[in-house]
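Repro case for the chain-ordering regression, as requested:
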Amino acid sequence: MSSGIEAQVLQPYKYGFVTDIEADVVRPGLSEDTIRLISAKKREPEWMLDWRLKAYRHWLKMTEPRWSHVSYGPIDYQAISYYAAPKAMPKLDSLDQVDPKLLETFEKLGIPLGEQKRLTGVAVDAVFDSVSVGTTFRETLAKQGIIFCAISDAIREHPDLVRKYIGTVVPPNDNFFAALNSAVFTDGSFAYIPKGVRCPLELSTYFRINAGSTGQFERTLIIAEEGSYVSYLEGCSAPIRDEHQLHAAVVELVTLDDAEIKYSTIQNWYPGDAEGRGGIYNFVTKRGKCIGRNSKISWTQVETGSAITWKYPGCILQGDNSIGEFYSVAVTNNRQQADTGTKMIHLGKNTRSTIVSKGISAGRGQNTYRGLVKIMKGAEHARNYSQCDSMLIGDQCGAHTFPYIDVRNSTAIMEHEASTSKIGEDQIFYCKQRGLSAEDAVSMIVNGFCKEVFKELPMEFAIEAQRLLGISLEGSVG
Amino acid sequence: MSQRTPLLQVQNLHASVDGKEILRGVDLTVEAGEVHAIMGPNGSGKSTFAQVLAGHPAFAVTEGSVRYRGRDLLPLKPEERAREGLFLAFQYPVAIRGITNAYFLRSALNAVRKQRGEEELGPVEFMDLLEAKLKLIGWDDSFLDRPVNEGLSGGEKKRNEILQMAVLEPKLAILDETDSGLDIDALKTVAQAVTLLRRPDNAVVLVTHYNRILTHIAPDFVHVLSGGRIVKSGGKDLALELEEKGYNEWAQDEAPVA
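-- result from build under test --
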């Protein structure tokens, strides 16, 4: 396979610039004092600090998981700075008062925040290193009782809601990285959709890592009350650096009766260079809990960045008739490694889950699907459909599939399909013989392969996703 | 007539794959308006010849020349050849999952139209054009939203190739064993479509193992390819002769090649 074809799959990283801004960066190192410092900077109530310290003490007793199909050197948790924020960030009344350098940064990333330029139809919470820079449309949403703000704000302004739900889906001792996040999380988004409200805007958070030698530990919590609906989008990027940077996030979703959350991610952290220098270590715990009957949580992810991706967005289907979905495209190029998939835990009756995973490997990339479908004893007539497709580009990459199935109720119906294909010279030649350029041919083939996932994305995100894959949009959406 | 430039002029063409020579000096001249049939035993180099003309990267041309519409064909990339009106109906058409026939066809047509200096067609205009072409091969609209060559039978794939040909309106169409795998009705439909697409300014090269399709598409010339060379040429009667005698006469002279 010619390297030309491989090169087209992922274009050079375009978001690798650094914003030159004076930052307040705490000294590297992790101790109870670090946590107290973060909590103090966030002006948190006592209960939050206690919760963090408890998580930290738990973390100290845990060991880093090494069961995933990725390899990397040891992470020195004492060499990381756990808090970085642009200096001189007074609480602002209007986004127009934000430091122009920050506004410029987000504009460069395609996320204009100022009143005049901001995206219509999408409310954005912009997180820069450890702090939220601002949230658009906050007031518009508030009129319908929707809360959309930085989680730091929510902890102060809506403590009852946060306290009621935080850690109920991903307990602080869930796993090593979740415990670490619970101890040191800095910012992230909080959304609350009241009973019966269909959120009129897409809610979106954009995470930007800027400072060097730091980690980003964001935490997101979304609560959809009875009969409500929200579509949430998440994007991210980071500068090009020779060092590896750690990103360990936790996302918790909760749906009550008849509620629905649609959660979409485009993960584009810096992937490292062709030799594997630099790049983000992305260790993320994302989980949703369908508490209510007939509720639904749908995860869609397009993972193109990071040196290492370790994430398994899952659903706990507790309410009867609840639905969990997972649609994923994961691309690994050069030396990237991804170990990603989902967990669907069926507890309620007639619960249904769908898993569609597309892995694309190029260069020396290693792509692993790892998924667990668990049907518990009480989950009468549960149903799962899983489909895992892998595409290989070139002959130095790898694709691996580890589906785990645990069924404890004999009324369950399980379906699993898997395929591996290779972009072949024959496919490319066929397209060329019809007049298409090599670039268009590869785009078309990759695009067609990902179609089932892309069609789950909101339109703006579908365009973004395809652009990231070096793909022209036409004809593939819808 | 003999003064004009031939559509295709192949002289002493040698080509090999993985260092193994398969074409050993092919000569062929095709004028606009003509239908040529290239017949021969398995492994004689028929498909290789078709692929080499289309520019498949697996084959290396080691000697000889190919002129197409008055210019040297060999330096052109496969997609450039296609945009210049050279069409290959594949023996084994490839599936492209997730991409609909409608989208694929329109992308292909627009690539060709761009080359001809014509405006690209939008989805609506294209649909009008396509409806007419679909009738030609006896298919309905439902086909358009299906992925390219996925889940089609061998015969349907061949028909799809002819549909693509009808849409792209090539100057030179090379049909690589399009007749194999077709039942008698499908064969008739394909043959009728090819006949309808004949014009004074285009030409067809039919690569086939059997005489069957030639009873539906009358060729102007029949050539026998054996051992990587054209060993005999004649009119359509030659095809009948081959049907009776088989290819043994030539196959014994030359060591068969892959």
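Ordering looks correct now. The longest helix of chain B spans residues 101-115.
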